[in-house]
TrEMBL record, chain A:
Superkingdom in the source lineage: Bacteria
Biological classification of the source: Bacteria, Bacillati, Actinomycetota, Actinomycetes, Micrococcales
Protein name (Swiss-Prot/TrEMBL): 3-oxoacyl-[acyl-carrier protein] reductase
Family statement drawn from the similarity comment of this UniProt entry: Belongs to the short-chain dehydrogenases/reductases (SDR) family.
Domain Ketoreductase: 208-395
Gene source species: Nesterenkonia sandarakina
TrEMBL record, chain B:
The species this protein was found in: Nesterenkonia sandarakina
CDD domains: thiolase (cd00751)
Protein known as: Acetyl-CoA C-acetyltransferase
Any matching Pfam family: Thiolase_N
Family: Belongs to the thiolase-like superfamily. Thiolase family.
InterPro entries: 3-ketoacyl-CoA_Thiolase, Thiolase, Thiolase-like, Thiolase_C, Thiolase_N
One function term, GO molecular function aspect: acyltransferase activity, transferring groups other than amino-acyl groups
Amino acid sequence: MAKDLYTEFANTGLGRSLTKSLGLPQPAKLRRHRPGRPLIDGPVVVLGSSEAASALADRLLSWNLDVRRHVGPKEKVAGVVACFDSASSPAALSSTVLEIGMLLKQLKPSGRLITVSRDPQGTSDPAVRAARSGVQGLTRSAAHEMRAGGTANGIVLADDLDPSAPGVAGALRFLLSGRSAFVSGQFISVDSVTGALPENWDRPLQGQVAVVTGAARGIGASIARVLHRDGARLILVDIPAAGEQLAAVANEVSGTALQLDITADDAGERILAHAAQHHGRLDIVVHNAGITRDKLLANMDESRWNSVIAVNIESQLRMNRAFLASDLFNADSRGPMGPRIISLASTSGIAGNRGQTNYAASKAGVMGMVSATAAQLAARHGTINAVAPGFIETEMTAKIPFATREVARRLNSLNQGGLPVDVAETIAFLASPQAGGTSGLTLRVCGQNLVGA
Amino acid sequence: MSAQTIRDAVIIGGNRIPFARAHTAYATAGNQDMLTSTLNGLVARFGLQGEQIGTVAAGAVMKHSKNFNLTRESVLGTPLDPKTPAFDVQMACATGMEAIGSMANKIKLGQIDSAIAGGVDSISDAPIVVTDELRGILMEANRAKTVSQRLKALAKIRPGHLAPQAPGVNEPRTGMSMGEHMAITAHAWGITRAEQDELALASHKNLAAAYDRGFFDDLITPFKNVSRDTNMRADSTLEKLGKLSPAFGKDLGAEATMTAANSTALTDGASAVLLGSEEWADQHDLPKLANFIDYEEGAVDFVDGAEGLLMAPAYAAARMLKRNNLSFSDFEYIEIHEAFASTVLAQIKAWESEEFCKNKLGLDSALGTIDRSRLNVNGSSLAAGHPFAATGGRIVASLAKALHGKPGKLGFISVCAAGGQGITAIIEGR
C-alpha cells in the first residue's frame, strides 16, 4: 500500500493552514468504527414531521443517543437525519432542506447527513415521483459539499414499507457509524421487513459461517478480519499458489484455509463440502476474488479477455448455482437471518475505464447477476448485493504511477483513497441480520468518486 | 488399574511445504523456519488455532546442536496452545515414519487424543562443525583453570584443525556413500538401467498429474513463493533420462546403472501429519481420511556385506504382513520410498523371489508380486525430492488422501533408512 503522504501532511497544523490558504484539497482523517466505542460522538438531529421521522427518532433514542428535533445556532451536532418520506411535491421539500442547510455549518468532523425518502419507482404520480427523485439529487449534491470527512447518503424506503422495519434501522445505524466512513453520495434501498436487529451490535455475525474468496491479501484479508471481528467463523479461499499468505490470514482470524481455484467446475461443491465438514452450515458468501488483465480493446487477446471473465463472473455464477442448490446454504430453519451473498463489483463496471473492457464487462456482469439473483435469495429470506469500491489503497493501486495515483485518490468528495477496511465494513453490514431488507443492490464505497457518478 | 483397550488412530490430514532442490529456493531457511511454516499451514487448514495437541513429534536428520528442541521451538512459533508438548525424533530417513507410527500408538493406547507428527530437513542449512582435534583443544581450554593452562591448550591449534567439517553422508562404518551401497545391491539383483529410468519417469509423470488434478490442493502449503516441488520434471522422457552418465557404481563399468535422475536429489523441505482418535476428530469436526493400522521397524547387517544397506524394509514387511495376516494382493496402493529407483526395484524383486523369501525371510514361498499400477500412484521421492525426515509425512498424508472414500482399502508403505534400517506401515482408508 502506497502511503498517502499528502493526507498525513494536510492533517498537521502547518498542513492545515497551508492547504487552506492555497485552496488545495483538504482530506480529513476519517472516523472509523472501533468496537466498544460510541456509535456517533454528539447529538443527532431528526428533521421532518413524517411517519419515518418519529419512528427513527424513537429508534435513535433506544440506542441512547442524544436525539434532538431542534438545536441552538451555535451547538455542534454529529449527525442530521432528514425525513422526506411524506413529500408529495418538490415544493414540499423546502422547509426541511433549509433546516439542513443551517445545520451543515454546525456539523462536527466526520459528520453525517442522512436523507430518508420513498422509492420514486413506487409511485406513478408525477409530482410525488419528482419530489422523491429530487431528494436523491439534493443528497448527492450535499455530499459534494460536505467537509471535514463528513458524508451524505440516503435511505430509500419501498413505497409501503413500515419505517420501523429492521432494515431501516440497520441502514441508519450503518450510515451514522464509522463503518460507512468512505461511503458518500449513495443510497441504501430497503424493500422489505425481512431481517433482524442483532443482540450485540458489535458482534452482529455471532455464530454465522462465512466464506471469503481471494482472502490471502488486500481487500479479501481485510474482509476476513472485519467479519471475524463481527463474530463470524471463517472459511478462507484462495488459489493454491497464495497458500502461505492465506494460512497466515486464517491463523490470524482463527479460520480455516481452503486452497482452491474458484474457476474449477466443482469449486462451489468443494466449498460446501468444507463448510459441511467443519461447521455443518454456510451462511455468508463473499465473492471477493478477482483479477485484472488490462489492455486496450484493439489489442485485447483471447487469454486476457477469457481469464478475467472466467475468474470475475463465470466462477461466481457457477458457485452460486451450487450454493443455491444446497440445503446447507439455507438458514431458513435457524431464524430470521437468511443466507447472504455479497459480490465485489467496481466503479469501472459502472462508468467504464480505458483499457478495462474485460474487467468492466465482468464487474458490470456482477451487478447484473446480483439484481437477477435477488428473487432466488428472497425465497429463502436471504439477500444478495454487490459492493463497488472506488479508489482503495491496496497493493494493486500502489502500482499505479505516482502522478496518476495522486490524481485518482483525490477525485472524490473525501479527497482521499479509501482503505480496504472501508470495503470490508460495507460487506460486513450487507452480511448482517440488520441488512435483511436490502437485496439486489450495488452499493458503492468510493467517497463519491467522480468516476461513474 | 483400568484395563487398556486399543482404539483406532485416525489420520485426519497433513501438510507439507513444496520440496526444493538443495541450495535453491530454501537456501536461507533453516529447519525451524520450514517446520514452523509447515505446522502453521496445518493449523490453518484444520482451524487448530489455540488448540492443545496431545503431543507433537518430529525430527531432522541434519540438525544443528542449537536446535536441540527443534520441534518444541517450532510449536512455540505457531498459533497452537503453548501448553502443547513436543519432542524430537531421529531415525535417519525413517524419522517421519517413526514419529507418525509412535504417535499413532499413543493414540491407540488412549494416552493422547491428538498428535502431529512429521519431519524436516535442510541440506542447504546443514550444520558445519569444527574438526574433532580442534573441538578437543577448545574443550581442554574451557576446562583450564588458569590463563597459562588455557594458552597452553590453545597453542596446540594447527592450521589443519581449522578446516570446517560438513556433516557426513557416508555410512560411518563402511565409509561408502548410500549410492555406492545401493549400486552393489542393484547389481546383485540384476536391476537394469531401463527399469530404473522407467520408474523415475513414472514418478515425475504421476506427481505432475496429481498436481494438475488438484490432488495436492489440501496437502501442500506454498513456502517462499514455491508452490510445486522444484525437482519435478513433468516434461522428462526416457530418451532424456537415457543420456545421463552413471553417478554411482562407476567401478562396474558398462554395468553401472544408477544416474542422477534415477537417484533422489538432495532436497530441503518439511511435512506434518495430523492424527487423532475418532472421538477427537468428531468433536473438532475434522475429516477422517484413514486409520493408521500398524508399523514395523527393521534393520539388516550390511556392514560386512551380508545384506544390502537399504533392504531392511524387505524384512520388516514380511513380519508386518504375517502379523496382520495380509499379502501384497490385499493392498489398493503400494508406496515404496524411492531413495533410488533401484531401491524400489530391489525390494520388489526380493518379495517376488522364492529363494529370498525362503532363505532370508524364512517363509514357505515368495511374498507375492507388486501390481505396478498401484505403485507410487501420485509420484514419489525421485520426482518430489527427499528431505530425509520429511518423506514419511509426505507419504502418509498423500496415501491417506488417496484411500479416503475407500473404506477398508489398504495402503502399504516402505521407507528405507541409513544405518541399514527401515520402516514399513499399513494404513486403511475410511
